[in-house]
Design a protein that fits this description.
Helix content is about 35%, strand content about 15%. It contains eleven helices and ten strands.
Amino acid sequence: MKLGFITSCFPDEDLAWIAGWAGQAGFDALEIAAWPARGRPGHGPSHLDVVGFDARAADATTSLLDGHRLSISAIGYYENNLASDPVRRAQIHEHLRRCIDAAALLRCPLVGTFIGRDVTLSVSDNLALAETLLPPLVDHAGERGVRLVIENCPMEGWHPDGYPGNLAYSPELWEWMFSLGFFLNFDPSHLVWLGIDPVVALRPYVDRVLHAQAKDTQLDLSARDRYGFYGRTIGRSGPWDVGWWRYRVPGRGDIDWRAILDTLQEGGFDGTLSVEHEDPVWGGTVERVQRGLEIAGRTLRPLMVP
């Protein structure tokens, strides 16, 4: 098992800087964020420009990472593949195909994304829509030796009323998406606040987990008594300001990482555990993000059997 992190926590730094720091800090791998670059539709954290990506760019990227003894665990483009606007949905699918093509050139076997949801439709209608729209993306990946891994984040901030915006948040939906040819990018942090035991949920599906993300969750159950499960209604600072839980770096929340890693390893998982840093305590500056990743490393590394 390797320890890495997703590069989106350093949105303003380039891949060369990130790789240099990651290698010095003792990480083994990077999950490279590859949203469209600034100035393009749907831009986001972008450390790999997959538009026009070719063999020369792949060689340069591989050489950079090799120089810091790093591998690429996955290319990450976590967007709404069922977006209600057909123009936007087509843009997302096209960019996802470019991420897949870049992964193939880099000999990276995985691309991470979301199922998503058309928030104007019912869940059942979304599942039917996905069964039509998404298999061609799976086929595009498979033809290039790449597999698509889906993170189990609810993305409730995508829905105007805070309902799940990514239909991959529970084991029931994992089984459905497996039938479409997807695999799981397992992140226990989302299960905790949903009331799902992450170890119990993980155990039957370890063989479908090709990549895992390490993010912790800190619960405040007394605040839940005020706001309810769906969270703060009045005065939210943003879509994910729910008031009774928050994401933390591993070791600063409520997840039993020993049990998670033991379950993964007992089930034969030998991929990458990628820290997803969304901790508001250890955020805000590059230096604090670095400290947060170091905390995660000190928490997880002793639990990883060589």
